[in-house]
Amino acid sequence: MGSDAQVTMTGPRLLHPGAWWLWAVALSACALRTTNPVLLCLIIAVSGWVVVSRRADVPWSRSFASFLRLGMIVIAVRIVFQIFFGVRIPGTTLFTIPEVTLPDWAAGVSLGGPVTLESLMAAFYQGLRLAAVLACFGAATSLCSPYRMLRALPTVLYEAGVAVTIAFTFAPQAIVASRQVREARRLRGRSDRGVRAWSASAMPVLEGALDRAVALAASMDSRGYGRRGSSSVTVRRRSVGLVLLGLLAIAVGSYGLLDPSAPALFRIPALGLGAAALIGALVAGGKSTTRTRYRPDPWIGPEWMVSLAGVVAFGSFVLVGRMSDALSPSTNPLEVPVVPFVAVIGLLVAALPAWFAPHPPTLASASSPMVVAA
Amino acid sequence: MIRFEHVTITYPEATTPTLVDVSFEVPEGELCLVVGVTGSGKSTLLRAVNGLVPRFSGGILAGSVVIDGRTTSDVAPRDLADVVGVVGQDPAAGFVTDFVEDELAYAMENLGVAPDVMRRRVEDILDLLGLHELRHRPLASLSGGQQQRVAIGSVLTAGPRVLVLDEPTSALDPAAAEEVLAALTRLVHDLGITVLIAEHRLERVVQYADRIVMVPGDGRPIVVGTPAEVFGGSVVAPPVVELGRLAGWSPLPLSVRDARRVAGPLRDQLASIDTEVFSRKARSLGDVVATTDGLQASYGPITALRGVDLEFRAGEVVALMGRNGAGKSTLLNHLVGLREPVSGVVQVMGSVPHRLSARDVVRVAGLVPQDSGVLLYHDTVAAECNASDRDAGLLHGTTRIVLDRVVPGVDASTHPRDLSEGQRLGLALSIVLASEPPLLLLDEPTRGLDYGAKQRLVEVLAQLAADGHAVVIATHDVEVVAAVADRCIVLAEGEVVADGPARDVVVHSPVFAPQVAKVLAPLALLTVNEVQLALAAASDSSYS
Predict the structure, then answer these.
(1) pTM of the predicted model, to two decimals?
(2) Among A1, A14, A294, which would you mutate to test the B interface (most chain B Cβ atoms within 10 Å of its Cβ)?
(3) In this predicted complex, what is the ipTM?
C-alpha cells in the first residue's frame, strides 16, 4: 500500500464538525417554525440526501436510519395519544370511541369521544415536526465524528470530562449496541422484529451503550483528558460557574427565538448574556488549561459554505413567517397546505452541501484492502 | 517504580474483597507478568496502578498504591498520564479519534506538548512500533494486531515510564501476538520502560518475563518470584513447562528454544513411535450437516469471503484458523444466518439459514459469539435457563439439564455477571445447545479462559462431537486446536488456503504449530498428553 493518501485541504477530508452542527441546528430551527407537512418532508429529505452523499465510512455514520425510525415512532405515538386523550376538535368525524366520564378533579382531560379528521391531521403535523427535528439531529451525528466535536469544544468544558464524553458518544454507541443485541436475540431464537422485541432489548442496549461510553471515558482520562494544569480551585470553580450560566442563558435565548410566543426578554438579551458569560469563562479558563492541537481542524471555504447554507434556509423561513401564514397551514377547517416558494428555495440551498462539501476519506482511498498481513 | 502496600480492594455490593492485602514491588525496567485464573482480580490489580480502580469502578481501596513516588489516592488518573500508560483488553474500545495519527497525538494534546515536539514524537513512535505505513489509515480499517500496536503507541507518545497492559494479545492471531510482544520487549530492552502485563496464554509471554505476580483469587495471598520459581509448584503452566516436568528437565525450560536444546534424547526415545495411532480417526463421521458453495461476502467495499466451498459433517470438530480479519467470524455468521451471502449458497440441514425464522434457525445451527456475555441478559442463572426454554419452545428445565452436563454445580440464583468466565461460557453454550442444533459454532471460545477451564471446554467439545454434533470453532489458540480438532481449515483474506486433518495442517506451520510440536519436530506429536502416551508405548516396546 502507498502512504500517498495525505490529508490535504483539497482532497477528501472531514469537515469541521462545528459546520455540520450549525447547518443541522439551522435546519431543525426551520422545522420548529413550521407545521407545513410538505416543508417538513422536504427538510427530512434534504438532511437524508446530504447524509447519504457525505457521510464517512465509520461506525458512527450509520445512525441516521435509527433516527428516522425513532421519528416514525414519535408520529405514531402522537396520533395514538390524540385518538384517546387529545382535545376534541369538531369537524368530519371518522369514528367514535366510547367516552369515559372522568371525575371532577380530572376536568380538562378527555378520554374517548368522536375522532375527527381535523384532529388527526393536527396531531400528524406536530409529530412530523418532531420527526424532522430528530432527522436533523441524526444527520449531525452521522456526519460528525463525536471525537472531533469534543475536540472543538472550548477547553473550559473539559472540567465536565466524563459527563461530556458520555453525552457526545452515547447515541452512536447505542446504535452499535443495538445491532449487537439484535443479533444476540436471534442467536437465542427470539424474534428480532415487532414491538415486543424492541422494548425487551431497550435495557441491554442502554446498558451496553453506557458501558462503552464509560470505558471510553476511562481511556480518555488515563490519557490525560481534562488535566487540571496549574490553575487553582477557585479559578476553576469560577469558570465552570460561568460556563453553566452561559449555556443556560443560550438555551433560554434559543428557545425564545424558536417560539414566537415567548417574551422578548427571552430572545436577544438572553443570547447576549449567554455569549458574554461564555466568553468570560473562556478568558478565565483559557489561561489555566494547557492544551495543544496536533493538526487542528481548519475552518475555511467549505466550512463557511456549509454553515451559510443552513443559515440561508433559516432566513428564508423567517421571511416566509413574516409575510404569510403558509408555515402553519390550518387544520380547522382542513386546508390543502400552500407551499411557500421562498422556503422551498431556502431548503434547496440547504441541500447544496451534498455537492460542494468535501468528500470524507474512505477506507478504499486511504488503504489497500482491510486485511493486511501482520 | 510500582509499589503496592497492603492493598485490599472491595467493589460496591460485593461481600468479599477482590484483592486482599496485596504487597509487592516492581523495580524500574522490568517486564512483570501477572497471571492467575479468570476472575481472580488480575484486571483489578492492573487498573489500580493508575487509579482507574476505584475512581472509575467504584469500591474501596485500602492500603496504598505508590507509583513513581506518587500515591494514586492523591492524584487522578489523568494527572498520571505522563507516568503510566494503560492499554485495555479491547483496543478499539479505548480509541477516541478516527485516524492513526490523531490517536497517537491525543495524549500529547492533553498534556499540552508543543506542536513541533508532538510532530517529532509521533514520527518516533511510528518508527518504533512499525506503524509508519498506517499513519493516515482510519482506525476502524486496521487489523487486530495493528490496532493493539496503535493503542500501545497512543500511550507511549506521552512518554510514560510504566506501561500496563491487560491481555494485549488475547484477541490476536499468533503472528500478530508475536508482533505486539516483540514491540514490547524492544521497549523494555531499548528504552528501559517498566511493563506490567496480564496474560492467559502463558506460552506466549513467559519467556520474556523477569518476574511473575501470581494472583490465585479467592483472597489467597499472591505469589511473586522469577518464572522458574513460580512455575515449579504451579498448576497454571504453559505446555513447554509441562513437557519439561514430564521429561524431568532441570532447570525447567520456559521457551521453545530452551526446551529444544535439551530435548534431543527425548526425540530419539520417541523416534520409533508411529504417530498415526494418535490420529483421532476413532470418531466415525456422520452425514453432511452444512455446506457452503461459492460463498461470497462483503462489508461495504471490502470483500470478506471469496468463493468459499466447504462441507461440515456430523461428529467432527473443525478448527477455523487464520489472521484477524481473515473471514472466520463472517463465515460463522453466515452459517447461522445472521448475514445474507452476496452470492453463493449456504445450506444447513437442507435449509437456508438466513431465510429461517429465529426460532427455526436455532434448531439447525447455534452460535456462541466471541463475547459470550452478550447472549445473557437476565439477572439470575435460573431466569436465563427459563427464558431459553421459553424462547426455543422446549420443555421446562431442558436448559438446566444441559447446563449441569456442561458445567455442573452452577448456583441457580447467581447473577450471570458474577460467574467465572468459564461458567459464563458454559451457560451461553447450554442456551445454544438446548435446542440441540446439529451444527454448533463457537467464535473464539477460549478467549479469557485459564488452562483449567480450557481443558474442561476441550472435554465438552469432544463429547459433543461424539454425540453427533458437527462442531466448528474459530480460534487463534493453537494449543486448543492441538487438543481437540480433527480437521483444520485455514482462511486467508477470505479464501480457504488449507483444509485437512488438524495434525497435517498445524504440525509444520511455523505460526500454527503448538509448542510441543515445535520442540519435538519432526515428530508429529501435538500435546503433552500425547507425549505421555507415546512414552508409555515406547517403554512397552523396549521391554518386549
Answers:
(1) 0.76
(2) A294
(3) 0.79
